[in-house]
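Kindly inspect both lines:
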Amino acid sequence: MYKQLIQLFIMYLLSFLGATMFYFAHIPLPWILGPLLATFIYNTYTTTTLSQNKFILNISFLFTGCQIGATFTTTTLEKVIPYFVPFFIITVLLIYACMKSGELLAKYASIGKTTGVLGSIPGGLSVMVEMSDSLKANTGLVAIFHTIRLMAVLMIVPLLASFMFTQTDTATMVSDRISFNVWTAILYGLLFILAYLLRRKIPAPFVLIPMIIIACFKISGIEVGNVPVSLYHFAQVSIGIHLGLSITMSDIKKAGNFSWVFFLFTCVIIMLSVGLGYIFASMSNLSFATAMLSLAPGGLVEMAITAGEVNADPAIVGSLQLVRLLFIILILPFALKKWTKFDS
């Protein structure tokens, strides 16, 4: 136990140093990318097995979900609902393009078509690994491909967004900040308990449950205090450590030459999402930044935080990324079974 605490302390110390360096270097997502890189390097060269504290990680996801939910307003629904159908159609087209690129990857790399497709779809790592088990794909390769996609998206999309759009401080994600109070602390505690109880029934419960409930409160006009900036940064650092530990050099080496091929495929999908984001923005009254990040093949949390940095709307980005996540979780497994059955 004592040794684990020492390792955890060293990880956080290095991560905060990495975050500080990224912050002063004006690199986007400094509180996530700095810890991610620092943890990845430390994990690569240390002989000790590192792990993130589960309780700290879940609390960090909770804070992040609450912060994203706090960005919702009544105008969020007014902006999202009219363009739900176009967004859904564009999302389906993007996922279809990912599936076809997965087929090309499978053909080039001489791997199973199901493995290639599952490795290319922009879903969460745990979700896609679970799908690969049920569809009897190569789970190891699926995990490796999603690890490479995660690295590419986290490094490219925030940098691309910061160069294309105006960069701001993540602390300004919520324009009218309400001070943290006792009522908010009690609410956060209840949300944590609810997320814990539903952890086996709902994907990413520590993010989605607080995000949805806080959003409902804000839309209904119920005042809820914002997450203090210091806690929000700590939450991002904890998530960055978690992401850094999920990426290992051994996994990248296992992919061999395929890693570069898949990296190029990921870059193509990112550029495709930029193009589709421009089309989506021209079809709606959403800004280009908001539309692009809503379609970017990254995670809900990372893209919503990036939105807060580049003057996009984190609430809209979070809600539309949630729509895609639900589509991938609820509908895609059935479509994939039909797809692979038809191809075989």
In short: Residues 84-109 form the longest helix (26 residues).
